[in-house]
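Cast an eye over this sequence plus tokens and walk me through the fold:

***
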Amino acid sequence: MTPDTNTATRVNPFGYFKPNDVALPLIQEVREAYSTVHQFLLTLPASRERAVSITELETSAMWAIKGLVLNDPESTQPNESGVTGA
């Protein structure tokens, strides 16, 4: 197993990480793409399967954005987040 070289996950992956200004437009682009898919899913007949697909889409969006932020060496973890350190 290789050691984790990602500073964010070594410090505390559960705290708040502020993305850098360069990453913000990419994060917005990801959100817009997920919103487009969400709008399409809402056109499907209401069902348990549609509800599950929307839930899974929300989960996927969360992981996509978290992946961008945690793997960005310029992201910061402000002390005022209340959850810093390991």
Observations:
- The mean pLDDT is 84.
- Residues 33 and 61 are 9 Å apart (CA to CA).
